[in-house]
Amino acid sequence: MPNSSPWDEIQVPAADFNVRQLDVKTAVPCFWGRDVQGDCLFVVELQGNHTDQFRRRVVPVYGLGIDLRDGEDSRQRLVLTLDRQVNRDLFEGLCRTLASSLELAADSASSLVVALAHIRRWKAFLSGSSQRLSAEEVRGLFAELTFLLELLNKCGSANRAVESWLGPERSHQDFVFGNTSVEIKSLSGLERSRVRISSEDQLESLNDALYLRIYRLSNIPDAAGARALNDLVLAVQDRLDCAEALEAFDRKLAAYGYAPNPEYDVPRFVVSEVSSYQVFGGFPRLVRSGLPGGITGLSYDIELEAMAAFECNGSAVFREA
């Protein structure tokens, strides 16, 4: 990468900051900048007051200052500040791709939404796994996020819904809220008659209610409502109305191993069937408390037909949401 950067041509000011406008086709002006400490800035100038929207959607990013400052003539400035000069090349890459993404925004409000979403994706990319999720992992994450969206509709608190998602933390069950545990499974079109249970702890819970919820995902890219994993991640982020919930969600995505990647734009799934089962009594399962001593680390399949007597109304799963 060349040693020069757009900040080299900008003098350090005695007050406020000096800027140089980018030559981009965006609805809002964008600038390279330097402040009195000589720090590198990227500035997006917005018309109107966007303070509430900024507070709901901004998340902290290590090594990067993110601020919304009032300006003149009813304007505000979104200011990104690089903390460490050694990361100037990464910061320049973030700013250039951000400017490119802003070409899709129509006004100041949508520009701020695009900018903050872009920053969150960069954060997830820098903190997430560099390895691509397997096809099975993509389906599993898609199913868990589908349930998370349903939970957001049922429970009014974004923080509570995100906190209940324990799948990325390798908990025994994927969701725990109130006195309810829920294990999420996905089935592809090829998996017709059975579901895989990955451990002896997955269908045993200390909570009073335990449910198994199964999503059958069909890869039908042209169908109405078909969504890719990237689409579903953005749909959840759009529903989270506070910075704390967004931060927790992005952190859990990174723990799962997800980072924004164009490869996750396919496949595009339709949820063709949802089934819910209450796990209790004679439900067909192997659990740690019922295994002979020394037996551990097992996985097994359950035939859907064997669980039929335990199927329940899906609304029962959300009773304590």
Key attributes of the depicted protein:
7 helices; 2 domains; 321 residues; Phosphorylase Kinase, domain 1
Give a structural overview.
By secondary structure, the chain is an alpha+beta fold. It folds into two domains: 17-127, Phosphorylase Kinase, domain 1 (2-Layer Sandwich), CATH 3.30.200; 135-318, no CATH class. It has seven helices and twelve strands. The chain has helices spanning 51-57, 88-101, 108-127, 135-154, 158-164, 229-239, 243-256, and strands spanning 17-21, 30-35, 40-47, 64-70, 75-82, 175-177, 180-187, 194-197, 209-219, 269-278, 300-303, 311-312. Helix 3 (108-127) runs parallel beside helix 7 (243-256) and helix 4 packs parallel to helix 6 (229-239). The chain is elongated.
In short:
This protein is α+β, with helices and mostly antiparallel strands and 321 residues long. The chain contains seven helices and twelve strands. A five-stranded antiparallel sheet has the order 1-2-3-5-4, with helices on one face. Strands 6-7-9-10-12 form a five-stranded mixed sheet.
Weakly predicted, low-confidence segments: none
Please work out how many helical segments DSSP would assign: 7
Number of domains: 2
- Compute the CA-based radius of gyration: 24 Å
Helix content: 25-40%
Strand content bin: 15-25%
Using the alpha-carbon principal axes, give the shape.
Answer: elongated
Q: Encode the helix/strand succession as letters.
A: EEEHEEHHHHEEEEHHEEE
| pLDDT averaged over residues | 91
Through-space gap between termini? 51 Å
Strand order of the largest sheet: 1-2-3-5-4
